[in-house]
Amino acid sequence: MSTRFDICLIAGGKYHDIDFARLELLKLLAEHETARVTILNDYSDADTIRSTDMLITYTCDIVPDEKGLAALRDFLGKGRRWFALHGTNSILNFLADGKVDCPDCAPDFMEMLGSQFQAHPPIGRFKVKVADKDHALTRGLRDFFVEDEQYLCTFHPGNHPLLTTRFAGQTPEFTHSDWPDAEHLVMYTRPSHGGEVLYLTLGHCRGRFDLRPLADFYPFVERGAWAHPVYYELLRRGIRWGMGG
């Protein structure tokens, strides 16, 4: 008899179609008959986080308090794996001049994840390169183009690059607006507090009502990397990785 595998999916936050992302992730998790999923909106249920076998997060501007942070440390301290997606590493502060600031006000959380979001250019098409062709998570993949938010982050030492992208230019909507030519991580693994984190920055999605209270109605439906089959392949590989594969 197969052994039950408990997964905690935290899907919540701002400015994204969280319902869409949650549903798509649940469909992928349903491909594993041993998986049983508990869904949370944030990090407040410390007992569930502490006891789960795997953690998946798709959030935006959601940061754990000290109780939640302690639960994450305990979870990782058991040697378990955390698959973090898209805006998990974001803190967004909208200023009076309309720009977005990403303050360094949760350093322990960002160190745990290995990065903090700082900016992205307007949604567009960009190239993603396979940085480690021998890793199980990327083996057999080729470089690809995707239309999504090209995440520009500050990174902590110790991350192992799997996918990268290159950017040089301006991000005028953000306080961190000047970016010299450099490579940025798109997917990486990181040993963290006795466990391991897999971070994948792709995966923006937004519906027509997801910018509230900034705007009552958004004229577009955005699906970003979710419109690309390679993204679902990366998600499937990440889920298998988190389950010990």
Automatic annotation (TrEMBL):
Keywords per UniProt: Plasmid
Domain of life: Bacteria
Record's keyword annotation contains DNA-binding: no
Pfam families: ThuA
Residue ranges annotated for the ThuA-like domain, each copy included: 21-206
Stated name of the protein: Trehalose utilization
Lineage: Bacteria, Pseudomonadati, Pseudomonadota, Alphaproteobacteria, Rhodospirillales
